[in-house]
Amino acid sequence: MTRTTRRYGRIAQVTGAGVAALLALNACSSSGSDSGGDSGDSGASASAGASGKVSGTVNVFAAASLTESFTALGKRFEKEHPGTKVVFNFGGSDSLAAGITSGAPADVFASASPKTMKTVTDAGAAEGTPATFVRNGLEIATLPGNPDKITSLKDLTGDGLKVVLCDKTVPCGAAAEKALTAADLKLTPVSYEEDVKSALNKVVLKEADAAVVYKTDVKAAGDKVEGVEFPEAAEAVNDYPITLLKDAPNAGAGTAFIELVRSAEGQKVLTGAGFTAP
Q: Where is the signal peptide (predicted)?
């Protein structure tokens, strides 16, 4: 098995904002439904964002693993579009999808898996076809210095080791289950967490010895954890789709935000955070 130790910058504060009051888009903006495939334009009107004339609040529901990179892109968006404000709601993709289908007002949804995005598209809540904008893989997060000498998934099944996983209903948990199946292993964690940040924080707070999380989260945690790669992670890579929502209160700003995410500028931020290009 290959073991890689990584040390990166400090983890960002998760500030999952609730849904803010949204300002209506001015009459000159539009939200067409040009629907491409995964390499298409996510169903948003290209002219709406391209005009640059957007204003007001754009509400973005995004997977917890996107916290650091999307927060950085949100600040860049506000700078590039004076008069706008990006409000994020970060969390488990399944709970975000449930909120959207229950009527929570939002403009953009970025999910950590096609399965959770399908919940939104099946409900008719997406505007057009979602587009994959990045991919993410798994890594084992251990305590600094890796005192338990973990080098593989199999090591996580050792007696006395406290391991946490994401809940099976969220993408990081489903991916972990897929990796464990590929390794032909059974693992009973001390807890299942609601999203990847919660799982990682168990290790950061020394309440667990290890967690199976995304590579991007290990990178964001810096010297608070160490990362261990394992070959079965190749069997559990997640595609991340993004879409404008059908009832977006500020479709023009939502379209422009998606364009930033998918632009060369946006991709540079995302790959810098450890994601891979689609």
A: 1-32
- The pLDDT score that the predictor gives to residue 113 is 97
**What's CA 171's distance to the chain center, in Å?**
9
User: Torsion over CA of 97, 103, 106 and 110, rounded to 10 degrees?
Assistant: 10
Q: How many residues does the chain have?
A: 278
d(C-alpha 67, C-alpha 263), whole Å? 18
Q: Which amino acid is at 234?
A: A
Could you give the CA distance from residue 48 to residue 154 in angstroms, rounded to a whole number?
50
Write down the mean pLDDT value for the chain: 85
- What secondary structure, in 3-state letters, does 180-232 show? HHHCCCCCCCCEEECCHHHHHHHHHCCCCCEEEEEHHHHHHHHHHCEEECCHH
Tell me what pLDDT residue 42 has.
41
Structure tokens belonging to residue 269: 């931020």
3-state DSSP call for residue 158?
Answer: coil
Annotated binding site for molybdate: 65, 93, 196, 214
For 188-217, how does the pLDDT look when each residue is reduced to its tens digit (9 = 90+)? Answer: 999 999 999 999 999 999 999 999 999 999
Residue numbers in the known binding site are: 65, 93, 196, 214
Residue-wise pLDDT tens digits, 128-181 = 899 999 999 999 999 999 999 999 999 999 889 999 999 999 999 999 999 999
Which of the four pLDDT bands, split at 50, 70 and 90, describes residue 31?
Answer: very low
**HSE-CB of 124 using CA atoms within 13 angstroms:** 0
Which of 262, 255, 259 has the alpha carbon at shortest distance from 277?
262
- SS3 percent helix, strand, coil of the chain, rounded to 5, is 35, 20, 45
Which residues are CB-neighbours of 229 under 8 A, at least 6 positions away? 2, 3, 4, 139, 140
